[in-house]
Amino acid sequence: MFTDYARFHRFALIAFAALTFAPLHSQDSLFVVGGHWTQVPDSIHVLRLSSTSSWSEANSVVLREANVPSELIITNLDSLNHQWSLHVEGFQPVDLPANSSVSIELPTLPLGAYRFGLIDPQGLGLGAQGMLQVGLADSAPMPENLFHWNLCDWETDELVEWGLGNVPDLTNPYVPNYFTINERVYPNTLEDPNAVVQVNLGDTCWIAVANHGQMDHVLHFHGFHVKILTSNVQSERIGWSKDTVPVKRGEALTLELVVNQVGTYPVHDHNLIAVTNAGFYPGGMLTQIQVTP
Ligand SMILES: [Cu+2]
What we know:
Immunoglobulin-like; mainly beta; five-stranded mixed beta sheet
């Protein structure tokens, strides 16, 4: 079938590329799924927005092309009604009746990272919030070096109440005790290929960051400055190159990292409470940039 190795190699490359990139634009479904979250010992039950009908510890990232309207089908597999929204100006929240599917028109958006999630109190309280990446997979200088960090803070007392179907007393002071990247706490962040940035010297990588928590998170990069490429909240900061990047509550941004030195470098929330797990250091919102020659 293949007369020479080069032809086979070319075929294999094309087949591989098709397999690799086909899912980027074909994810047309999200599922509201409940399950047991093992990162936080006290929690009994949480909700996720998953790209399959199976439980996923991490919320999903949805990929879309820039400046093109698209459709998204959301299936609510939970036994309660929920409400979903894309957090962009003018988007009308959508009702998700229990055990049913709803088709949603996603608006035309410019290149960037955006947030979506359940906005009813229980859906929000149980952590069903994810990231929409628009155009990033198409425009990243090295698509294999596109990472994402969904940041969140959690108070397990509240989480347990929501999980039991109760409404926690939200007049109590908010004292979060877990801090996550992609729903993982350090050191488990290092096992998530989207959270740990494993790259080669000379690479350029993009990191899409979304803050779904109730507080601001300020990321401190050791070893590198990163450039802010997009932000849905602080557009005046686009183009800034810094080693410390505040990510405001509700913000989603895209960072560019040019990998100009070898080694292992931490990235962490500069608020040291957020690098603990229930008070124990180190933990929480801490990951690494690992650069090989
Ligand atoms: Cu630091």
